[in-house]
Write a structure and sequence with these properties.
By secondary structure, the chain is mainly alpha-helical. The chain folds into three domains: 63 residues, no CATH class; 96 residues, DNA polymerase, domain 1 (Orthogonal Bundle), CATH 1.10.150; 214 residues, Orthogonal Bundle (hpI Integrase, Chain A). The protein is 50% helix and 11% strand. The strands form three sheets. A three-stranded antiparallel sheet has the order 1-2-3, with helices on one face. Helix 2 packs across helix 5 and helix 11 packs across helix 13. GO terms for molecular function: DNA binding. This is Site-specific integrase. Belongs to the 'phage' integrase family. Keywords: DNA integration, DNA recombination, DNA-binding.
Length: 394
């Protein structure tokens, strides 16, 4: 880290100098060095060098004392954006912008302490179910500062992670429907929209009966549908770029590339919608004969807005719940909840293995499916004991 050399002045007097590392260039990673001259003896130079080394070890390079968390973050993002898709980068930028930079951004990174980080993570855990993800992203900036020797130790690595609060996850049971609720929703969709919005009817049926992601369905082109074979090719997805504009991207993982098989009713529904869609778009002046034509286009013949299905499903649920003749209410879920509904009913049917369900929905993370499986198993266990008690009668 430091070296001591002897030098002479023109008048013949000898002195010693210490050359030492003050930090690393954040872009190249190469060490940046300085020197201190004028020591009369080698021992004096060694003592100064030792004290400087201890100070650096304890507090990081003094040259970096005024660097803020935001400055390190800016360097981190420059490197990070080259390793992920634009949709992922857009998501991560949002997490930093909303949750992390307002807290740490203006603070000098060397002044951020373990207790400060502990309090921030504790607060996140009280307010956000995905607080661990927020903490992990915040920690990436501290790790970069540590690699560049801007800080000596990473305060975020030394906190105690709060325990998950079970009540935060109770709402998870409400994110999907059972078979009866799904049937009610699909019937209400047809009743409410009728001939006015066959697009919504076909879209919701596809998600509910394939478990595909909303963004995958919106990216479908006519060429992806084989009516004779009753198959649907999933090989792309609607996503957002760095400017938050909708673009077509590749599936999240290799598991996302898959061929889905449709039941006859769903295949007929989709086939009829494509015929209707082509007529509607032709009236608007678009030539839809190409096999690259979007199956669910907007009025400009581009991909439908990602938020449009959310508005549709909310409208259908509201229309059903507003009817006083209906004895029950439909829980409010999103189109993603229809995907979870597919998994739930598939598990309850006992016709598919967990591996088959995982392959169908294209999810590389089995934990999502296992969480739903645990819910279904718990429900089945309760029904079992209730049946037993009813039979015994005492």
């Amino acid at each position: 880290m430091s070296s001591i050399t002897k030098y002479k002045l023109k008048n013949g007097k000898s002195f010693y100098r210490v050359q030492y590392t003050v930090g690393y260039d954040p872009l190249t990673g190469k060490p940046q060095r300085k020197q201190k001259r004028g020591f009369k003896t080698q021992r004096e130079a060694k003592l100064w060098s030792a004290r400087a080394t201890v100070d650096i070890d304890n507090h990081g390079f003094t040259e970096n004392k005024d660097i803020t968390y935001k400055e390190v973050y800016d360097d981190f993002i420059e490197s990070y954006k080259k390793t992920v898709k634009e949709s992922t980068l857009n998501h991560v930028l949002g997490i930093f912008r909303i949750h992390i930079l307002p807290i740490f951004g203006k603070k000098k990174i060397k002044k951020i302490t373990i207790p400060m980080c502990q309090k921030v993570v504790n607060d996140w855990s009280e307010n956000f179910a995905d607080y661990k993800k927020i903490k992990n992203y915040a920690n990436l900036v501290f790790k970069m500062a540590r690699r560049l020797s801007i800080i000596y130790e990473n305060p975020m690595d030394l906190i105690i992670m709060p325990k998950d609060k079970p009540e935060m996850h109770k709402s998870g049971d409400e994110k999907f429907w059972d078979k009866e609720e799904l049937q009610t929703f699909l019937e209400q969709t047809v009743k409410y929209y009728g001939n006015r919005n066959e697009k919504a009817i076909a879209l919701f049926r596809l998600i509910a009966f394939t478990g595909a992601r909303k963004a995958e369905i919106l990216a479908l082109q006519v060429a992806d549908f084989d009516y004779d074979e009753k198959t649907l090719l999933i090989n792309k997805t609607v996503t957002r770029d760095i400017d938050n504009k909708q673009v077509i991207g590749t599936p999240k993982t290799i598991n996302g590339y898959r061929t889905l098989y449709l039941d006859q009713y769903t295949a007929d529904l989709l086939h009829n919608w494509i015929i209707r869609m082509r007529k509607e778009m032709l009236i608007l002046g678009y030539n839809t004969s190409s096999r690259s034509q979007w199956i669910f286009p907007n009025e400009s013949n581009n991909t439908l807005s990602l938020m449009k299905p959310n508005k549709w499903i909310d409208t259908v649920i509201s229309s059903y719940n507003a009817n006083k003749d209906n004895k029950t209410k439909l829980k409010r879920i999103t189109p993603h909840g229809l995907r979870h509904t597919f998994v739930t009913i598939a598990i309850e049917s006992k016709k598919l293995t967990l591996k088959q369900i995982q392959e169908q929905v294209g999810d590389s993370d089995i934990s999502v499916i296992m969480n739903i499986y645990a819910h279904v198993t718990k429900k089945a266990s309760k029904e079992t004991i209730d049946s037993f008690t009813s039979y015994v009668g005492f």
